[in-house]
Design goal:
Layout: E1 6-13, H1 17-30, E2 35-36, E3 41-42, H2 48-58, E4 59-67, H3 68-71, H4 77-81, E5 94-99, H5 103-109, H6 111-114, E6 119-120, H7 125-139, E7 150-153, H8 156-161, E8 167-170, E9 183-185, H9 192-201, E10 208-212, H10 215-234
Parallel strand pairs: 1-2, 1-3, 1-4, 4-5, 5-6
Antiparallel strand pairs: 7-10, 8-9, 8-10
Helix pairs in contact: 1-7, 1-10
C-alpha cells in the first residue's frame, strides 16, 4: 500500500456537497476513517468513470451519492453501469448512497445501480455512517491506524527518551498551511539538543505532541490530519 491511500473517497454532485457530503465526511472522520474529497466533486462534462477510477487509485472504497442532481449530469448508461466493474472479483469497493431519490427513479437511469444494496439519507446521516462503517469493516480495512507510542507534553526530558528513528509530530500548527510546526524523524542522542531548540523556536515546547514508532503509523496519522484540513477548507 502506498502512502497516498485513503479509506474512502466521496463522489458527488456539487449540489449535494453542503447538505450531505461535508456533514457525512465529518462523521466518518470522527469515526477514525480517512476521507478524500478533493477530486470527488463532479461537474457537467466530467468523465464519471475517470473520476471514480482516479478516486479508487487513492482510496480503498468509493462512496457515491446518487441523487437527482447526480443523474442530471446525463451520464451515458455505459458509464453508470461501469461503476461497479471493479467488483467483478467479488470485493466490494463502491458504497452507494441514495439522497432524496427512490428505487424506481434510479432504475430508469440504471437497473444495475438500482439493484445494488444501498443506504438512504432519509434514515439520517448517522444511519448512513453506521452502514458505511459496517460495509467497510465487513470487507476489512487494508490499514489500521496504530496509536502513538507517546502522546504528551513536548519536553527536553521526553525528547531524550524517544526511540531513534521514530517520528515526532507537534500539536501546534502553522497558520499558513495548517501543517504541524514539527514533523521530524527522531535522530541520535547527539541530535536531540537541536530538536529541542527547534521546538522552543516555534513555540511547541511544553505543548502536546505525538510520537509514532513506524513510518506507516506516522503517515496514517498525517492522512487523518490532511482529511481534517481538507474538510475545513471546504466548509
Amino acid at each position: 500500500m502506498n502512502e497516498t491511500t485513503w479509506d474512502v473517497f466521496i463522489s458527488h454532485a456539487s449540489e449535494d456537497k453542503e447538505e450531505v457530503v461535508l456533514p457525512l465526511a465529518e462523521l466518518l472522520l470522527a469515526s477514525g476513517l480517512t476521507v478524500w474529497l478533493d477530486k470527488g466533486e463532479i461537474f457537467l462534462g466530467d468523465s464519471l468513470r475517470e473520476k471514480i477510477d482516479e478516486g479508487l487509485e487513492r482510496s480503498q472504497f468509493g462512496i457515491v451519492v446518487f441523487s437527482h442532481s447526480f443523474f442530471s449530469k446525463n451520464w451515458p448508461k455505459s458509464e453508470l453501469d461501469g461503476l461497479f466493474s471493479r467488483e467483478m472479483g467479488g470485493e466490494k469497493v463502491i458504497l452507494p448512497i441514495w439522497h432524496e431519490i427512490g428505487f424506481e427513479e434510479i432504475k430508469r437511469y440504471s437497473p444495475l445501480i438500482a439493484g445494488k444494496l444501498a443506504v438512504s439519507t432519509s434514515n439520517g446521516l448517522n444511519a448512513v455512517k453506521s452502514q458505511v462503517l459496517s460495509a467497510i469493516h465487513k470487507v476489512g480495512r487494508k490499514e489500521s491506524i496504530a496509536k502513538p507510542i507517546y502522546s504528551g507534553n513536548l519536553t527536553k526530558k521526553a525528547i531524550m527518551t524517544f526511540p531513534e528513528g521514530s517520528y515526532l509530530i507537534s500539536n501546534c500548527y502553522s497558520s499558513y498551511d495548517k501543517r504541524p510546526l514539527i514533523e521530524e524523524k527522531v535522530g541520535s542522542l547527539e541530535d536531540r539538543e537541536a530538536l529541542w531548540e527547534q521546538a522552543k523556536s516555534c513555540g511547541s515546547n511544553g505543548r502536546l505532541c505525538r510520537v509514532f514508532k513506524r513510518y506507516e503509523d506516522y503517515r496514517a496519522h498525517m492522512r487523518m490530519l490532511d482529511s481534517l484540513i481538507q474538510l475545513k477548507r471546504l466548509n
